[in-house]
Amino acid sequence: MKELDITKLRHGTDLVKKGFAKMQKGGVIMDVTTAEQAKIAEKSGAVAVMALERVPADIRAHGGVARMADPTIIKEIINTVSIPVMAKARIGHFVEAQALEALGVDMIDESEVLTPADPFYHIDKRIFTIPFVCGCRNLGEASRRIWEGAAMIRTKGEAGTGNIIEAIRHQRMVTSMTRTLKTMEATRLKKVAEEYCQSYVTSFKTLTNQEVDEKTIVFGDSTYSTLKKEIYEVLKEIKGLQRLPVVNFAAGGIATPADAAIMMQLGSDGVFVGSGIFKSKNPEKRAKAIVEAVAHYDEPDKIAEVSKNLGDAMLGIEISTIPKEQLFQERGW
Amino acid sequence: MSEHLASMNRVLKEEKQPGQTILVRQPCDIDTCDALIIPGGESTTISRILVNSGMHDAIRQRMKQNNIALMGTCAGCVILAKELSDTKADVRLLQAMDMQVERNAFGRQKESFEKSVEIKGFTTPFNAVFIRAPCITKVWGSCEVLATVEKEIVMARQNNYLALSFHPELTDDLRIHRYFLEML
After folding, report:
1. Is residue B143 annotated as a catalytic residue, yes or no?
2. In this predicted complex, what is the ipTM?
């Protein structure tokens, strides 16, 4: 590595963090649990890998508290592949995030797939040098995470199910709400912004038994008044761009090339595949097929071609058979 | 890619040039282009897409005919190089420019940075964004150095080929895209 005078360089700026996320566009990010799997993912054309101890399907099956992966595994994966390595931290667990940053991980997924650590707050992502990706079910969650400093947003979907329905639900929710913003005048937009701020207000009230006023610090070092103003600015940007101002990936339930391609056609910038690859019969073949499907998402011939003879996909779970308290997507707010 | 497209479209509009921009996906797209931008991302991924789609050979063909301009940014800069310092890397190069490149030379994402860079021929510095960036470790032949960051080469030109280890498409400064257009 080149030795530079770091005092002259600006690290961890918004541009550097969001720019990293932009470089993942049009790509597939794959969950891996070993260096060997990471190598397969890289060879199959993944733009990055997500290092974790167990894939979501196994977390779901085994239960217990799911935490950040063992640093030994993460380090091994970092040393094995040349593509970026991401890793998951529990919602609100800023010390897991600090540890991951120290390890040299390129992006942190503050993920509902792991057991949440903080019942009140997500991580203040603005103060980290490395970028974060966060899940969302709707525009409210997306706006809050972006305001908290997320450089990338993904649908929550329902991880570990091999069932695409929730990812589609969340993508459609974000898109349709974005469309309704288009015709909203400033007063109405401010109302929506205030609505989106309410989860911070609720957390504060629960913690202190006190009401919130304009000067109350509600998150990090931000006052309620700043929060409202800045969430409004986020919404104004979404309204103008008619899309999220950060890269928006699909995640949670993608199992086939067609699953990946439908998310792209619905407006995703790329996809995360969790259990879908290494829980299938032929991971290498399936991984390559999903990469191809994302690159050629609007070419039906190509999707048909790459979908041939992949072997069994992961079995999958019907969402209505999962008890509500076991749904990952209900975690976070 | 979409950021490069947007930057180039703005330049074409401002310069009132008749050119048109397209996203290339297959070899026949390459045949319709006078100039090609190879974007950032991961050089291993981009190289695989270029080779598997047949675009690698299509570009090499046009290079032989000497009738295409190329600009590579970040991973694209790697692809344009004649050789890599890490000979084991799984990247097939276009070998367009007489330079050697080191991938991720400035470190991982944590070490990624922004910095004002002096570029030869530009009157004011350019705010350059380096993301897991490569650097050009040496140049030879007619390959000319255009910018450095503390002695490390970050921009070079050889005839109608241009390589940068940073991302001009992430800022509003259009000077590099304009410079590339003027190379045609």
Report:
1. no
2. 0.94
